[in-house]
Amino acid sequence: MKSAGRFLVSWLYVGRRFVCPCCGMSLRRMMATPSRANARCPRCRSLHRHRLLWLYLRDRLSLLTQPLSLLHFAPQTGLWTRLNGLTHIRYITADLRSDDVSVRVDMCRLPFADGSIDLVLSSAVLDYIPDDVAAMREIHRVLRVGGIAVLWLPVDDTVERTLDDPREWSPRQRANLAKTGGAVRVYGWDVCRRLESVGFAVTVERYARDLDSDTVQRYVLLADDPIIVCRKACGQGCD
Domain boundaries in the chain? Predict the structure, then answer.
């Protein structure tokens, strides 16, 4: 069945129009999602945010050259494949329910020593955590001074503040959250203040804007996709 599946994928998708930077597959088209055509890589199942995060880690943070410890929450297959193959990093995968990770953890009670992690990676996870500020505080605690948390979050540009109460969600927001299967809030850009409240210095980077349009199209990225970068400076939570 696996061979038949690979054969089918080759005929349906292989080409030269697009490239998935996560798995390296060359494609004439990508799989569609309910909201977008040419969205998901048929081999590694990466979406735009996973491809953008890999490029950011590889090129902006020079992940391929620096030895470090990386804690990755709810790892997606495409990113896992790339990161797990880097022999110079200590790669720790974490999830609350999955057994196919390095450690099963509650994000609000991490079993790591203070300042023991260099880099944290999380894509669309905090919006599932009931006490997200507690999780942010734990991420801050386990990062070393100078460490970085790279986050992707589904921020709704139409709301001024984060909506934690389901009674405040619009029908459109309810429909979008229903597709995610369990997210508990709609983030606004005040999420940056939540992250700052636990001690992070926060910047919002739109890395795809730094890439030329041909690269954005070839890798099937979203030009305005934001990456939230949280740096732990010496201050709150530091000696």
Answer: 47-232
